[in-house]
Amino acid sequence: MSFNVMIVDDSGAMRSVIKKIIALSGFKMNLCMEAGNGREALERLQGNWVDVIVSDINMPEMGGLELLQALRRDALYRNIPVIIVSTEGSSARMKEARDGGAKGFIKKPFLPEEIRSVLHDVIGVGADGEYQDDSRDADEGDF
Amino acid sequence: MANIKMIREMLTRAIFEVFEKMYYIFFEPVKGDGAHYQIAATIHFGGSAEGRIQIFLSRGIAEAMARNMLNLQEDPVDPPIMADCVKESLNMICGNFLRRFDPERVFDLTLPVLEMIPENLDQSAEAVEHRMDLTFAAEGGNLRVVLTAPELL
After folding, report:
1. Which residues of B touch A (CB under 8 A)?
2. Is the peptide bond between A109 and the residue preceding it cis, with omega within 30 degrees of 0?
3. Among partner residues B88, B104, B105, which is closest to A11 by beta-carbon distance?
4. What is the ipTM of this complex?
5. What pLDDT was estimated at residue A143?
6. Neighbour-count burial of A137, counting CB atoms closer than 10 A to its CB (0-12 exposed, 13-18 middle, 19+ buried)
7. Percent of chain A beyond pLDDT 70?
8. Per-residue pLDDT reduced to its tens digit, A90-137
9. What is the dihedral of CA A82, A84, A90, A92, to 10 degrees?
10. Residue of A11, A60, A87 lying closest to B96 (CB–CB)
11. Which of helix, strand or coil describes residue B13?
């Protein structure tokens, strides 16, 4: 089973790093879309399905938390799991992200295994890149 | 208010963590040596404390950051890619430092702004109140980090 991923970050370098980590982790990526901010992400979603969104918070035009809100308002997209990857890792910000519907939170800077671990927890992908039947919603441990 | 030594430690640890994890560059603290830097970037923060962090670095370090982060080969690094890596590093340094300073509070960060430094610009460090000026060395060049925060320093 392969997955469609969207990576949202105003840093092209960061998007490349996250994409590479996901690809090298054994995660079977069918399509990887990229966007430089939340508004671009919403535009790219039109007519495309993604299985998970990995998004920064602090971006021009539309940040990650606003993107979360926009996704939750749309019946078509509200169930897409969103993982936040951000420098802003205060407990208050993490709570804000969780309350907004984010399923995982990774603080920058990160090690590759941190991305893999959260992906595994959020969408139930195992070390072999295959979907696991015991996937679960994120709990406190994912934050 | 955290004392100066603690703030220096927090900022230093933030710098080490960002550069080691994301760019595989290992710095050591050194005394400012009046080196001329080619690139500067600035970020402002606000919230329970306000201030700014500036970084100054050599082109060699900036290129090494891009090559290591993106696993680029020996070709010249495109300036936009280099600029992106430098700005993102400052974003992470600031966020990491503020998390250490106050893990509970939300801080607002501006988007980092980068500029190239003219060759003839006097870069000698000024003794300015409420400012912390740190210099680090690694293979490839130096990094200078200046924290200006009246409420913290």
Report:
1. 17-18, 21-22, 66, 69-71, 81, 84-85, 87-88, 91-92, 94-96, 98-99, 102-107, 109, 111
2. yes
3. B88
4. 0.85
5. 54
6. exposed
7. 87
8. 888 899 999 999 999 999 999 888 888 998 889 875 545 555 544 444
9. -20
10. A87
11. helix
